[in-house]
Amino acid sequence: MKSPPVVAIVGATGAVGVEFLRCLEERHFPVAELSLLASARSVGKELTFRGVKHKVAELTEASFEGVDLALFSAGGSISKKFGPIAAKAGAIVVDNSSAFRMAPDVPLVVPEINPQAARQHKGIIANPNCSTIIAIVPLWPIHKVNPIRRLLAATYQAASGAGAAAMQELLDSTRASLEGREHKHTVLPHPYAFNLFSHNSSVDPQTLYNEEEIKMTRETRKIFGDDAIRISATCVRVPVLRAHCEALTIECDRPITPAQVHALLAKAPGVRIVDDTGRNYFPMPKDAAGQGDVLVGRIRQDISDPSGKSIAMFVAGDQLLKGAALNAVQIAELLLK
Ligand code: A2P
């Protein structure tokens, strides 16, 4: 990729879009020119990048002339339509949607895990699902030395995963609830304030797993390059504004101890251990939000497995950063090298 590249952000006004800008800025990513794209509703809005105001333009088929890098986060249907158009115009697309993740010729990349895959792109690179990334960044260092045979995951997913409008719905419904007012939910399928519900993606009638759970299974296998891992996930939306938590239980090939996991994760990139048993202080969305590491704690033997091969842990990661914008910008950084 040409450096410094001409960068386009598709979905610049969205929850992830504004984090793209923040990550590019904070990580001193070289940018020759910046183009901010969104729907016609946002034309004329201004966003600041490196102290300079940029006007948002409407996304059209002509938006990608001269663009070297296009960061997409405007939903799957926009990616499906405009991703190939951007790639054909010569841009490298890093796509945050699920549109291309499982396509055999599209690399699905977490830079701490499979950076080499990014090099095999044919114009489009996919950014994995947020719950997948947050689970597998800390699991990879374990998998490399003692392969994970089985993963059980339960997620506690924030509003941010459903976009800026869902975050606003959580705020509005909570305020209404505290003031004793009625609130009509329009973004998420159920009342959100002081409630939680099974992830708002559709449920497959055959397997009875929802789309988010299926993504976690398929994407983990693709990124690890290991189709044999047995995975079962339960994905739940909780009334937290930003940052997902997950309870993870793994069964490894050989016996493993919490001390071994601590030692592996202490030196793992993108991971921070937060495991203070004395103070009962473990990963929380409040601490995960706004920073790039996956926080890991509650690292303990799974005592339901007498073979000693199983470990339980609890993780938290910022869905908008490592789960989306940060991972995408890290992928783009691989292309500069
Ligand atoms: P807009 O703000 O103009 O609606 P989020 O994930 O937070 O819901 O954000 C979605 C992003 O995708 C927003 O930037 C939104 O722009 C953008 N988007 C939604 N629909 C379109 C569309 N038809 N064309 C271009 N951008 C779109």
Features:
337 residues; Rossmann fold; 2 domains; 7-stranded mixed β-sheet; 6-stranded mixed β-sheet; 9 helices; 15 strands; binds adenosine-2'-5'-diphosphate
Brief characterization of the structure:
The chain is of the alpha/beta class. It contains nine helices and 15 strands. It folds into two domains: 6-128 and 324-336, NAD(P)-binding Rossmann-like Domain (Rossmann fold); 132-319, Dihydrodipicolinate Reductase, domain 2.
Provide the CATH topology of the largest domain. Answer: Dihydrodipicolinate Reductase, domain 2
Strand arrangement in the largest pleated sheet? 3-4-2-1-5-6-7
**Percent of residues in beta strands:** 15-25%
* Total E-strand runs: 15
Report the CATH C-level class of the largest domain: Alpha Beta
Provide a count of the helices: 9
Q: Over the alpha carbons, how many angstroms does the gyration radius reach?
A: 20 Å
Q: What's the architecture of the largest domain in CATH terms?
A: 2-Layer Sandwich
**Domains (count):** 2
Estimated helix fraction: 25-40%
Structural class: alpha/beta
Enumerate the spans where pLDDT stays under 50 for 5 or more consecutive residues. Answer: none
- Cα distance, first to last residue? 9 Å
**Given the C-alpha coordinates, what overall shape results?**
globular
How would you state the average pLDDT, rounded? 98
Bound molecules: adenosine-2'-5'-diphosphate
Spell out the helices and strands N to C.
EHEEEEHEHEHEHEHEEEHEHEEH
Query: How many strands, which pairing sense, and closed or not: the largest β-sheet?
Result: 7 strands, mixed
CATH superfamily descriptor of the largest domain: Dihydrodipicolinate Reductase, domain 2
